[in-house]
Write a structure and sequence with these properties.
Number of strands: 19
Largest sheet: 9 strands, mixed
Number of domains: 1
Bound molecules: dihydropyrimidine-2,4(1H,3H)-dione, zinc ion
Distance between the termini: 57 Å
Shape: globular
Number of helices: 16
Length: 480
């Protein structure tokens, strides 16, 4: 089983060069010009287009049971949508119910994901705490290739991780060589503001951003970063949407702390005016957490990406259709939180990032695949075009155009938050595990073609962190 991608310009996170890429048995076997390949190799003619590592979306929720319903894109339709947009791998989230065994939940999600058409891995959420959770975290790291644990600082009375849980879990992550990640919103404040806003008679989607203002995110980001700093653990903040969080991350980094930041394609280009839409369904379709922000925050996110304060881009793909959103018709707190985007992320970032001059094509690769692969310890297996790497690639036409729309997307929902956006820069062929998986609008990969990928613990990196803590415990907590 071999495939030659001929005539493209290879673009990696650090360089661009003319080369053909030859793939054998799912891996990249050779890179160069005039490669000597068997006569029966399948050929994709890149015709002068770009060839980049397939996108890795580090934050999706396929088939998530959430707020009384289940997200519409399952692992098959969601990963297919990813392939259609040039994304070849996702890292989704196992979210155990409080008191549920982590391993039981992990196996449940693994079962659901067997029908994936593209590769997948899992972060596991810590939604409660006792000794069994501590033990099972160890087993997930040592046996099941999990090296990241997620903590929801919001969603009180459901999956919220309180400070005591953060302290226990971050400490355990440090012991195991795993990275703690957080959804940073102060859940107590969100709950309080929701009751206050409902009491004022505000029940529509406009109440959603009012109940989750930027300061609520900024407080949680600062708190999570401070806890990690005190314990000497690294930390990864998912879906950073507020300038306050970017500032907190930059401040910590400038003080020598290992803090990583992710932002979403949606937060980079949409603002909170979407919640003022006179059409309830359109406003509700944008309800996600954290919410879309006043315009100025977008600027902070772009600058964060440009400066390297933020490292990765994701989507938080969690697709609910209008019928599901209608559960919150009379109470915005009951609108299932979530928006889609796994299919549009690369084109939106190319259009708004590369075409505007904010990002170079190499920086685009860094923030759409390579940085994620490095942070979650699967580089250079993924996020790279190198001999021996997984043959997950996207042939990219920088001059190709498209109008993003729910009428043409692959996702299972009836709404597209990027509706009507014209993009120049689109995938033409997506190669996953050395096979043409999607080409010119046609899905070629089949259910089950996607494979689970392990993410090993960060042994040497964590040894260094632990040594630093032992040698200089007071310095590790010093700020300013
Ligand atoms: N935010 C969402 O909008 N949906 C799923 C979970 C989350 O944190
Ligand atoms: Zn979240
Ligand atoms: Zn999420």
């Amino acid at each position: 089983m071999s495939l030659l991608i001929r005539g493209g310009t290879v673009v990696t996170h650090e360089q661009s060069f003319r080369a053909d890429v030859y793939c054998v048995d799912g891996k990249i076997a050779a890179i160069g010009e005039n490669l000597d390949v068997p006569a029966d190799a399948e050929v994709v003619d890149a015709g002068g287009q770009l060839l980049m590592p397939g996108g890795i979306d580090p934050h999706t929720h396929m088939q998530l049971p959430f707020m009384g319903t289940v997200a519409k894109d399952d692992f098959e339709s969601g990963t297919a949508a990813g392939l259609a947009g040039g994304t070849t791998s996702i890292i989704d989230f196992v979210i155990p119910a409080p008191q549920q065994s982590l391993l039981e939940a992990y196996h449940q999600w693994r079962g659901w994901a067997e029908k994936s058409v593209a590769d997948y891995s899992f972060h596991v959420a810590i939604t409660w705490w006792d000794d069994s959770v501590r033990e099972e975290m160890g087993e997930l790291v040592s046996k099941y290739g999990v090296n990241s644990f997620k903590h929801f600082m919001a969603y009180k009375n459901a999956i919220m991780a309180t400070d005591d849980i953060l302290v226990e879990s971050f400490s355990r992550c440090l012991e195991l060589g795993a990275i703690p990640t957080v959804h940073a919103e102060n859940g107590e404040l969100v709950y309080h503001l929701q009751q206050q806003i409902l009491a004022k008679g505000i029940t529509g989607p406009e109440g959603h951003p009012q109940s989750r203002p930027p300061v609520v995110e900024g407080e949680a980001s600062n708190r999570a970063i401070s806890i990690a700093n005190t314990l000497g653990a690294p930390i990864y903040l998912v879906h950073v949407s507020a300038e306050e969080s970017v500032d907190a991350i930059r401040y910590a980094q400038n003080n020598g702390q290992h803090v990583f930041g992710e932002c979403l394609a949606g937060h980079l280009v949409l603002d909170d005016s979407v919640y003022q839409d006179s059409d309830w369904g359109r406003a509700a379709a944008h309800v996600m957490s954290p919410p879309f922000r006043p315009k100025g925050h977008q600027d902070a996110l772009w600058k964060g990406l440009q400066a390297g304060t933020l490292h990765t881009t994701a989507t938080d793909h969690c697709a609910f259709c209008s019928e599901q959103k209608a559960a919150g018709k009379d109470d915005f707190t009951k609108i299932p939180n979530g928006t889609a985007g796994v299919e549009e992320r690369l084109s939106v970032l190319w259009q708004k990032g590369v075409n505007s001059g904010k990002l170079t094509p190499n920086e685009f690769v860094a923030i759409t695949s390579t940085n994620t692969a490095k942070i979650f310890n699967v580089f250079p297996q993924k996020g790279a075009i190198a001999v021996g790497s997984d043959a997950d690639l996207v042939v990219w036409d920088p001059a190709g155009t498209k109008t993003l729309s729910a009428d043409t997307h692959m996702s299972n929902i009836d709404f597209n938050i990027f509706e009507g956006m014209q993009v120049t820069g689109i995938p033409t062929t997506t190669v996953a595990n050395g096979k043409v998986a999607w080409q010119e609008g046609e899905l070629k990969a089949k259910a089950g073609d996607g494979q689970y990928f392990n993410r090993p613990a960060y042994a040497s990196y964590y040894d260094a962190l632990k040594k630093r803590n032992e040698l200089a415990a007071p310095a590790a907590v010093k700020r300013g």
